[in-house]
Write a structure and sequence with these properties.
Layout (H helix, E strand, L loop, with lengths): L6 E3 L8 E4 L5 E2 L3 E9 L8 E7 L1 H7 L2 H24 L4 E4 L3 E8 L2 E4 L2 E4 L1 E3 L6 E3 H4 L5 E6 L6 E2 L14 H13 L4 E4 L2 E5 L2 E5 L2 E4 L13 H11 L10 E7 L2 H12 L13 H6 L3 H10 L1 E6 L14 H26 L1
Parallel strand pairs: 6-16
Antiparallel strand pairs: 1-2, 1-7, 2-4, 3-4, 4-5, 5-12, 7-12, 8-9, 10-11, 13-15, 14-17, 15-16, 18-19
Helix pairs in contact: 2-4, 6-8
Length: about 350
């Protein structure tokens, strides 16, 4: 599978299953390194490929077990929403999220021996192209998430800042994100959709949840809160699956907060596929963190239905003039048809 698999995990949950994984990560985010691994200890999955995501030591220092627990909560909410979405729309291509299992690093072959002299193994460092001691990259007893390997071409369909992949627009997934805001009544929105498309449909991993509450980062470092929700609807194009779904509408914001909101939104990269982290909101906008958090705490978003089930996306279902005009046209057509029947009967 690549580099030497010298690392193992503790058993997963109450099962006998465990994982062996490589020395060198193939991808990394702000909080985890991703390694290729293999399942063992279970006849059903023996030898199958998986992905092991090791939480970085510097990330765990502050969050400890909260780090993996918040990720577990994000996955659970995303999976629940996917089940509701599939049940409601019954799309030809289902949407699902992988179900990670959480455990810890067990044995690490930390040393190799030259004669009788032990040397700590070198593995891929924190930056690509560098090497470091294994103990600095895969800490003893580190928390990890284990996911089954996704077969197919991996695609980043959307980001948490309004980006939509122009080569793979995936209207079903765009509608899914919109649906999560509607179904949660504005409490959150699932975004940052990535994964593979195969015979089962869309199989996704590493989603982000944008919180509609008063706290940034409530769902981990990719939770951009109300900024992420507003940005999503700024770039989202509704499709037929979005009929009847509520949208976020700013109902209360002070002039000062509006300046901060607009500044942050302008600096959220909707044309880039990369994931944005909460701490980057103030860095990219050049605003104090207190100002960014103040808007999250005080901005009021309402979940408002802007389209009815029978209206085309984008139509103004609240327009009395438009509805009245439709009624008169319908009435006029009925009268005309009755007049023709009476005329023919004579």
């Amino acid at each position: 599978m690549g580099s030497n698999q010298s690392n193992t995990t503790k058993v997963i949950g109450s099962t006998s299953e465990w994982v062996e994984f490589e020395d060198d990560w193939f991808s990394q985010g702000v909080s985890r390194y991703a390694y290729k691994g293999t399942f063992h200890g279970n006849a059903r999955t023996e030898g199958e490929r998986c992905v092991v995501k090791v939480y970085k030591d510097e990330y765990l220092v502050h969050l400890k077990d909260y780090a993996w627990k918040v990720d577990d909560r994000v996955y659970r909410k995303a999976r629940e929403m996917a089940q509701l979405f599939n049940a409601r729309y019954k799309p030809s291509t289902a949407t699902e999220f992988v179900a990670p299992e959480f455990t810890k690093v067990d044995k690490r072959a930390t040393f190799y021996f030259l004669g009788f002299i032990p040397f700590e193994r070198n593995v891929k460092g924190k930056i690509a192209g560098t090497r470091d001691n294994v103990s600095n990259i895969i800490p003893a007893n580190a928390s990890i998430a284990v996911e089954r390997f996704l077969e197919g071409d991996y695609v980043k369909y959307s980001s948490n800042t309004g980006y939509v992949n122009p080569d793979f627009p995936a209207p079903t997934l765009a509608a899914f994100s919109h649906f999560t805001y509607h179904a949660s009544n504005g409490e959150f929105l699932v975004s940052d959709l990535q994964g593979v498309y195969n015979r089962q449909g869309f199989c996704l991993t590493d989603p982000a949840i944008q919180s509609g509450g008063s706290e940034l980062n409530a769902h981990g470092p990719t939770d951009l809160g109300k900024y992420g929700i507003v940005k999503f609807f700024q770039t989202h194009n509704c499709n037929k699956l979005c009929k009847g779904l509520k949208k976020a509408k700013i109902s209360k914001v002070t002039p000062g907060d509006k300046v901060v909101l607009d500044n942050v939104l302008q600096n959220m990269p909707s044309t880039q596929s990369s994931t944005t982290y909460t701490y980057q909101l103030n860095r990219k906008s050049g605003l104090p963190n207190d100002a960014v958090e103040h808007v999250q705490n005080n901005l009021t978003l309402d979940a408002v239905a802007e389209c009815s089930e029978t209206d085309e996306p984008g139509s103004d279902s609240n327009s009395d003039d438009q509805n009245e005009n439709k009624w008169f046209k319908s009435l006029g057509g009925t009268i005309f048809r009755l007049w023709k029947l009476i005329s023919w009967s004579r």
